[in-house]
Every structure is written in structure tokens, then in C-alpha cells.
Amino acid sequence: MTQETARAEDEAAGQPETSAGAVGAAAAGDPKPSTSLDRELAEMKDRLLRTLAEMENLRKRTEREVTDARLYGASSFARDVLGVADNIRRALDTVPPEARANAQAGMKALVDGVELTERELLKALEKNGVRQFTPHGEKFDPNVHQAMYEVPDPSVPAGSIVQVMQPGYMLGERVLRPALVAVAKGGPKAASGNDNRATVQDS
């Protein structure tokens, strides 16, 4: 019995050491749940940031589409109105300056009224984003000009617009209708060759 008692006491004395070891092992394993939680929080934060970025891109894209629809949605109607502006200009061009200067009061009032109508029409178009341009003297650009024919004119650089048969129109940043122009041919060559390179790029 004495030996058994001693053995029991030894086992009892060893139990705290085992418990302490278990506690130490548990303490050593504590970082694992914490690390997993940090990783999960980081993933959630990343998903949240990605979602916010996607929502912001969607908002900007929607605003851009609404603006384009508002600006360019009436392009077909605006293009039809340009025919009215062309006819008004043709009517005014049929009256030579001499006839206008010597016209009677009634005729002069009629011509002035047609000119006023043209100005008001162009002003209304510009208010809605349609801008007229007449590129006389500018360098030919196939993106906004349409060449009808070439004119031999050595007094200006080759590729210069020497005549505008019909003005062009821009709708915002887009070409609603290109200007119909005549382009100089056989003009002086640039000494440095820069103009020649620009001509090739433009054409």
C-alpha cells in the first residue's frame, strides 16, 4: 500500500505538468484562428473595394452614355435641318452685291429678313451643339473635309483649301457633315520638307 500510495502521489504530482503542457500547446495554437480571421477580413475588404470601383466605373459610363445620347441623339434631325440652312444661303447668294445695294426698300428688307433668319437658325443650331465651319485657307484634312476637285494655284502651298463650296458642321466633337472644298495643287514646296510630311499624314 505504501508503494501504491507513493505511485499515486507521483502520478498526482505529474498531472499539473501535463496540464501546463496542454495549456502551452493551446496557447501556441492561438495565432492560427487569428491569422485565418485576418486573411478573411483582407479578402472581404478587397472584394468591397473591387465592388466600389466597379460601381464607380458603371456610374461614369452611364453618365457618358446619357450625355452622348442627349448630344448625338438628334444628329439625324440636325442633319435634315442643314438642308434648310443651305437653301437659305443659296437664296442669299443669288442676289448679287450690286443688286442689293441698288434694291428698293421692300427688296432690301426682304434680303435683310432672310439674312436674319439664317443667323437665327445658325444660332439655334449652335445652342444645341451644332457648329458651322468654313475652312478656307486651312490645310486639307480628310477627316473633316471632302475634296471635290484640285485647283492649280502656285501662290499657296499644295494641299491648302482655296475654295469652300459648302460649309461643314460639327456636332460636339463629331463631324456631322464634312465641308465640300477645292484643294490647291502644285503650290510651292516647303524648304524644310515639314509641310510635305504633314500633307502625307493628313491625306
Question: Could you characterize the architecture of this molecule?
Answer:
With 203 residues, this protein is of the alpha+beta class. The chain has helices at 2-29, 31-72, 75-93, 97-101, 105-127, 194-202, and strands at residues 130-133, 145-152, 161-166, 168-171, 174-177, 179-185. The protein has a three-stranded antiparallel β-sheet with strand order 1-4-5. Strands 2-6-3 form a three-stranded mixed β-sheet, with no helix packed on it. Helix 3 runs antiparallel to helix 5. The model is unreliable at 16-20 and 190-203 (pLDDT under 50).
- Secondary structure class reads alpha+beta
User: First CA to last CA: what distance?
Assistant: 115 Å
Unreliable spans = 16-20, 190-203
**Number of discrete helical segments:** 6
List keywords for this structure.
16% strand, 6 helices, 6 strands, three-stranded antiparallel beta sheet, 203 residues, disordered C terminus, three-stranded mixed beta sheet, alpha+beta, single chain
Topology:
Layout: H1 2-29, H2 31-72, H3 75-93, H4 97-101, H5 105-127, E1 130-133, E2 145-152, E3 161-166, E4 168-171, E5 174-177, E6 179-185, H6 194-202
Parallel strand pairs: 2-6
Antiparallel strand pairs: 1-4, 3-6, 4-5
In short:
The protein is of the alpha+beta class and 203 residues long.
